[in-house]
Structure formats: structure tokens, C-alpha cells
Amino acid sequence: MPNIAVFIEQRDGQIKRVAWQMMQRAREIVDAAGGEVWAVLLGEADAAEAGAHGAHKLFTASGDHFARYNSEAWSAAMAAFCGAHAPDLVLMGSTALGKDLGPRLAAKLDCACVSDATGLDFDGGFKIRRPVYAGKCYTDLTFSSSTAVVGVRPNAFTLGDGGGGAVAAEAFDPGLDGFAPKATVAEIQAAAAGRIELTEAERIVSGGRGIKEADNYKLIEETAAALGAASGASRAIVDAGWVDHSHQVGQTGKTVSPNLYVAAGISGAIQHLAGMSSSKCIVAINKDANAPIFKAADYGIVADLFQVLPAFKEAVEALD
Questions:
Q1: Which tens digit of pLDDT belongs to each residue from 3-28?
Q2: Segment (H or E) for 74
Q3: Taking the domains of the chain in order of start, what are their residue ranges?
Q4: Three-class secondary structure of residue 233 per DSSP
Q5: How many other β-carbons are positioned within 10 Å of the β-carbon of residue 227?
Q6: CATH number for the segment(s) 4-171
Q7: Per-residue pLDDT tens digits for 112-171
Q8: 204-255 confidence digits (pLDDT tens)
Q9: Are 149 and 109 contacting, i.e. CB atoms less than 8 angstroms apart?
Q10: Which residue of 69, 91, 129, 160 has the fewest CB atoms within a 10 Å radius of its CB?
Q11: 198-318 architecture in CATH?
């Protein structure tokens, strides 16, 4: 009977959606195989939803060390939790924080570590699916260590209504008495307020070289705003200086798995496909009928994006 610990990532008290997505998938597994789902929260945040999303228990640790992310303190605290409770699997989001924390925790536990997972099953043992070769293939992995740390791609699992009951928070000892970190966070430069984070977005509208010039990226942003979506970009226009790198989707940018991905004026180079091919529904808009993006698209529109996007935006706004 597997026990699964789910790390609840939070920033400034706001919990990342990927935590609830992982928790619901974990609950589905233990409901079929036995065991429990343990939510683990470091720092101050309202995690009352943990029970509703499937957690059997909620473990918390608070203190000055958790006011801001510090890899030394947080990995030590998670290692202390795992040492005390011995979960069979530890799940955390493949976010910027999770990609730093996960491998550090696995090193402390001397256990298996899998990153960017998009699938998780259990049949007498865990089977973890992740993309390889820039997203062209998938591999299924098992592990022989007593536990494993698995980073899960945001939006890899759907977020339903949950259905669990309330759970009481139980404090655990993070083992940080007398701890003095070798480095501290001096400053955090946050993204512009109100902007939807690409890796967590349910909908994304991205533009490529087909927008022709930097000023035309506002058409991508306006369409995204109408959809309540994040705005993305291909490497070509980021390298050209038209858009900030924080918008880049692809192998050297951000990997995303939204429910809807609209690619406007993007040819579909392998580098870009590696970052968005796991999207649930892909809509491609390109004048070139032979553009590689159409091979990955669920729906393709062979037309001028400057005609399609304004009409699309108008239609979406008319639905309100």
C-alpha cells in the first residue's frame, strides 16, 4: 500500500495549482491500491483545500527559514519529513522551485529522481512517464530505491472537484534548530502583477516570426487577454529582441501543458515543439500549409494571422 507525499508549493501564501493536480492523481492511486496521501507545506499559506483535493493528512512546518525559498533549509526540512514518515513517493511540481528542490532532496535521501513527469500509475509498483528526445518520444520508468522524488509537469493531470473531507494540520519538526544557511535571498524580482504564469496557464496564445515586427506582438497579447490566457513566443522573436525571454516557449524556454495552445505565425521547429507538444489541444495559424506546426496541431488554419486573430478575438469577446 503506497503512501504518497505531495509537496504544496506556495509563494507569498499563494498555493500553486500543480499541487492540487498532483494530489488528486495521488488520491486516485491510493484509492485503488491502498495507502494514504500526505500533503506537506513549508511556510505560511492557507492549505485548507488539501483535504478537499484528496489529502488524508496535512503536515506543516513554519518559521523564519520558510519566509522565502532557500534551497538548503527547504531540502533539509523535506529530508527530515521523509526520514520521519518514509513516504514511498514524493511529488512536487516541475516549476522553477521544484526543479531546484527535487534533485537536492533526492541527493539527501540517496534515492531515485525523475523530472518533468507527465504520467503516473501504480500496479504493484510505480510507473512514471516522461518525455524524451525533445518530446518526440515518451519513456516509462520504474525505480528500485525505497522511495523516489518525482517532478510533475504543471497541467499534466486534470484538476477536478476533489471530493475529500477536511483534514487538520499537524506540525512536524523540520530539524533546523541552529541551522545557518550558507546563502540567503537578498532580493526577489517578481513578474509584472496580473500576468498569468506560462507554465501554469490553462490557455496560451503564442506568436512567432509571422507577426513580422515587434509592435505586432500586441495582437498576441490582446487575443490572449480576451481568452484569459497567457501570451507566449517562439525563440525566433525572443532572439530578435521583440519579446522578453520570460515569454519563450520551447526547449530553451519554458515547457507548457495547457488545455489550449494557439500558435500564430509559428513554423513549428523541433525546439518549439519540445516545449508545447504535450498541450491538450493545439491550434495552428500559418499561411504556409506545409509548416511543420500543422503535424502537431489538432486544428489548423491556413490563413493570414492578421485576419484570423482579430476575428477570433472579436468572437471570443462576443461570448461574454
A1: 999 999 998 888 999 999 999 999 99
A2: helix 71-85
A3: 4-171, 198-318
A4: strand
A5: 20
A6: 3.40.50.620
A7: 999 999 999 999 999 999 988 877 889 999 999 999 999 999 999 988 776 667 788 899
A8: 999 999 999 999 999 999 999 999 999 999 999 999 999 999 999 998 899 9
A9: yes
A10: 160
A11: 3-Layer(aba) Sandwich (3.40)
